[in-house]
Amino acid sequence: MLLEDGFLGMIQPRPFLLSEGRIAYLFAFCGLVTALVQGSVSRLVYRFGSPKLVIRSLCLLGGSLLFLPMASNHIQLVLGLTVISAGAGLNWAPLIGLISTLSNEREQGATLGVAQSANTLGRALGPLCAAGFYTWDIRLPYLAAGALALAGGFIAARRLRRV
Hints:
By secondary structure, this protein is mainly α. About 80% of the residues lie in helices and about 0% in strands. It has a single domain, classed as MFS general substrate transporter like domains (Growth Hormone, Chain: A, Up-down Bundle). The chain starts with a helix and ends with a helix. The mean pLDDT is about 85.
């Protein structure tokens, strides 16, 4: 609402008109899904391996981000948010594990530090870019993030084939 008020006439209206309380419930639900998924990551890594899990999580995340702006009812919205939360929850732990195992032993700390810095930079720049995209089209931030996640999954699939 703050963006819509600040950019009056430039931003399309919200399609779901959820109250702040319902949005809070959605955030809590997404956090719960992410926590449950993260609790099972070690078993999934053991079953599938970190490379496959990273690739699948990026594709899951990217596909669900592309789906979310197409959601036309609350059930589709919750389904999309559930898959986004699961994909995000699946990604970080196996990715850090891969970075650690693929790094030179003497450079692991520095490499993990760079990965964490890149993660932090993405969390800072992502919302700024999304706000700019949002002024053009309400769907654009989701489509851009979904395309980036799918591109990351494609790159990971090509690079991690030999791992």
